[in-house]
Amino acid sequence: MRKRWVQLISSFTYWVGRRSMQSRLVAAYILILLIPSMIVSNYFFQQIRDTYISDALNQNTFLLETEKMNMQSQIESIEMAAQLAISDQAIKDYLRIEEELSSAALMEVAWGPSKDIQRIQTNNPNIAHLRLFTGNEHVMEMWPIIFKESRIAAEPWFAQMKSQGVSELWVFNHRDPDILQRYATDVPEEQPKVSLIRRVGSGAEDGLIQVDMLLKYFAPKTFGGIHDTGSQMVIVDRDGQFFMDRRQSFMSSREGLRDEVETQFKKLLQEETDPESDRIVHSRFSVDGASYLLIAAPVERLQAHVLNVVSLEGALNNVSKAQWQIIAANVILIILLSVITYYLNSIILKNLRRLTDTMKKVRKGEVTSGIDIRGGGEVGELAHHFNKLIRTINELIAQGIRKQAVTKEAELRTLHSQIDSHFLYNTLENIKMLAEIEGQRTISDALTSLGGMMRYNFKWSGEYVKLRDEIRHIRNYIDVMNIRYDEPIELELNIPSEFMELEVLKMSLQPIVENAVKHGWPDGSAEAKRIQIDVVAWEEDRITIYVKDNGVGIEAYRLGRLREVLRTVHDEDLPSGDYGRGGHQAGGIGLRNVHQRIKLFYGNEYGLDVNSEEGRFTLVTMTFPKVLLTGGGGGHEKSVDRG
Questions:
Q1: How many C-beta neighbours within 10 Å does residue 459 have?
Q2: Residue 300, CB half-sphere, CA atoms under 13 Å: how many?
Q3: Which of 13, 25, 341, 621 falls between 20 and 30 A from 629, CA-CA?
Q4: DSSP code per residue over 29-44
Q5: 623 vs 380, which has greater pLDDT?
Q6: Gap between the Cα atoms of 350 and 21, Å rounded
Q7: What does residue 476 show for φ and ψ, rounded to 5 degrees?
Q8: Whole-angstrom distance, CA of residue 234 vs CA of residue 245
Q9: What is the pLDDT of residues 223-233, one digit of tens each?
Q10: What DSSP state is assigned to residue 625?
Q11: Which one-letter DSSP state was computed for residue 502?
Q12: Binning pLDDT at 50, 70 and 90, where does residue 100 land?
């Protein structure tokens, strides 16, 4: 299952990653706006729900307390009527008679104490009945006050009052039956009532007094007949029986509501730690998805509870409806903002799309120039760096072309020199043999050196050679040149032996030495001629070669022009003409050519530098990276070659 979720997340991430930036930005805006609005909306509407429930609880608790106060007032009225009735000593005496009274005595009781009790009931019209019950067989019944106990012997509470010694009891009944049973075939009308049952005296033979009050007077809000579709009050007696106004349809029309109310009421009783507490308790529950509130208040004197069942469905539905309306309004607003944002992003990202299209064309080779995007911001900065990248690419291409051109130039020069190379080699060998036969060792050695030079020049197998090979070529060149001079050129080498394996460009030192030989000393000069080559590693990764001659040097202004040529070696417009002694024309293979090749193959930080002092010396400094083609031994090689 976890693997499946990971795959789904990966697929979704891949799908999102392939969407355009504009689509992802709009989706991000929607999420940024929608999620907080949903959270805030739910939070505030939950607060509204809680506030409504709290208000409903407070309001209906107040109604319940008001009903409880009405019931307390009626309880006092009932108790007062019962107390007045049994406080008449004449009534007590009559209930205790031991023999039947005469007619005159009975008339006296009927018009005396009996009428007084009737007046108590008359003065309190809410009292339905005030009756005295006795088991004395000598007492005559006097309707509607005095009755035999046999008329109530079937009542459930009668045995409890007679046998358990209970002195007072409050009883609820769903109907008010006719104890005289005058209409045995009639079904008594349903008129719920509450009755106070109390002993008349201290003995069991003294009889009972019953004071009845219809619940519509006793609890006017519960049984007042007021039609309310949002709530209903219920009285629960000590045995758990429910007494409610059946004319109201609130509880009777909702299937399962009464059963759930009973269940919730029992839970509240179980959670109540103090049975004698008069604390009002409440709970919230639901039936078939509809929310209700149950509030219960104890009536201690009755050992009963009055309940208020309140429907929260209507108000909560209105809150939910308002919530969905606001959410729908938010969604519509977010969609509208998303459409506006989409078009604004299309305008903002237009330059980015232009840049993307240009990159695609560059990749295909269709465009070699940059893109003109004005303005700042990230896109402008990206376009600026893209243009710099294009310029760098073009420079690298041009550099590669120049490198190839220089290489071809050197190769062509070599190829031109290779015309009939075998004929020249054979001719030189024949002349060398004749010189040896004639005993001309000098001529033979010169021919050997010349042949070595020609082979080195003609063999163009690559750009790089060992420094040892380049030095050998220079020695051959000096040997050949010394044939011209009466005072031979002295070649002094100060090169550590391990540096002989360094990598150098082929034909890089020879043009410098050739330049010194051609321009260092005037023709016919008889002074000593010396060329000194020093190799030094001033830095770990850089090699410096010094080529110094003791010739006539270079005039200051010509030296400046030569340095300008070397500085602008990659420029298209170069100074031309003769640079004087120590110089070479721009089109030849001389100092400029060597300098250009070093920069092309090693980098712009490497190359040649020329210093000279007129009449004393010329010093050419060459720098290149330290690269060994093979390992070199230790020690130091210093040699002096003379003609």
A1: 14
A2: 7
A3: 621
A4: HHHHHHHHHHHHHHHH
A5: 623
A6: 11
A7: -60, -40
A8: 8
A9: 877 777 788 99
A10: E
A11: B
A12: confident
